[in-house]
Write a structure and sequence with these properties.
Largest sheet: 3 strands, antiparallel
Strand content: 5-15%
CATH architecture: Orthogonal Bundle
Oligomer: single chain
Order of helices and strands: HHEHHEEH
Number of helices: 5
């Protein structure tokens, strides 16, 4: 199997979940966010989010090196590293008011 086919399959797998696309879009548009900010944002967009589900999606995005985790264990923050070019057009546009922190 070609390396391009494997990469395309990985991109499709990671982008197959709307929650992951929302997380990526939020981080891509806003820079860095804490775990709590991401949870609050997702909950406002799709309704209640199980913390374990958020953890799973963040872990998936870290494993493919699209985001990185920094900060302490008690207060982690997340930042987009480098997204594949084909992913950027898939990201939903988030209204500016949804990006405000601390609301």
């Amino acid at each position: 199997m070609s390396a391009q086919a494997v990469r395309s399959a990985d991109v499709a797998r990671v982008c197959s979940n709307p929650g992951r696309l929302l997380i990526l879009s939020y981080l891509y548009q806003d820079g860095t966010a804490t775990w709590s900010e991401i949870l609050k944002f997702l909950s406002s967009e799709i309704g209640p989010v199980n913390p374990n589900t958020l953890h799973f999606h963040l872990k998936t995005l870290i494993q493919v090196h699209w985001i990185k985790r920094s900060g302490s264990e008690d207060s982690p923050s997340y930042t987009v590293t480098k997204l594949p070019n084909e992913v950027i057009p898939l990201l939903p546009k988030i209204p500016v008011q949804s990006l405000r922190k601390g609301d």
